[in-house]
Amino acid sequence: MIYNVNVKQASWLTRKILGAAKYLNEANIGVGEVMNARSYSIRDMYNKLRGEFPKVEWRRLLCNNTSSPKWIFIFYLAIMDRLSTRDMLITWGILANPSCSLCEGGTEDHDHLFFRCTYSAAVRRKLLYWIGVKRDVAGWNEEVKWAIKLAAGKQPSATIYRILLTCTVYHIWQERNWRTFRRQQRRSEELVKTIIQEVHCRGSLSPSLAKRFQDLNFYP
């Protein structure tokens, strides 16, 4: 009985080993190359099987970001242009009106919603002023490029900026959904206060940011 179990195990293991050869072929790795290697590294083999993937610049905005997971998730969708904005809904035949849900003054796409819309631009302008940044607010692609440079470091100011940006995108998207599905809306001043309060709550979890938040204990 023990002998039969061992035979079955050996047969199963052999099939697994032979089946793995197809993954090596797909990665252009010869079986002989693996068998004749003087040393073996799981890390190197994983990288070869995975292939080469260029690093995206916006990873700096998400890596080491202590924001709420739901903020990061919505921000990631925005970065990938995967939020169901009205321009996308029209292409799917779900919606007929392309007007922005926040300002009703332009076509609602990622670039307009973040932050060419007069409503979202007013929110972002006040939040930038809150952290001591004075600049004109631009569209989505320009804002992301500028944010990558500002939030690249590990300084408290860069950390706070990453938290603030993801929180801002999340709440603007939430406001858009509230107006679309609940017929509820908040003034830009109310949204600014909500964002600042949540950023304070999130940032207070980190002792290294406490001193900086003492200077930001006000509403713009």
Class inferred from helices and paired strands: mainly alpha
| H/E element sequence | HHHHHHHHHHHH
Query: What share of the residues lie within helices?
Result: 55-70%
- The count of helical stretches stands at 12
Report the β-strand fraction as a percent range.
Answer: under 5%
Shape label: elongated
**Average residue pLDDT:** 86
Characterise the protein shown here:
With 220 residues, the protein is an all-alpha fold. Helix content is 64%, strand content 0%. Helix 7 crosses helix 8 and helix 10 crosses helix 11. The longest helix has 27 residues. The radius of gyration is 25 Å and the shape is elongated. The mean pLDDT is 86.
Key structural traits:
220 residues, mainly alpha, 12 helices
Short structural description:
The chain is built from 12 helices and no strands. It is an all-alpha fold.
SSE map:
Layout: H1 2-26, H2 31-35, H3 42-50, H4 59-62, H5 69-79, H6 86-91, H7 110-116, H8 118-130, H9 140-150, H10 156-182, H11 188-203, H12 210-215
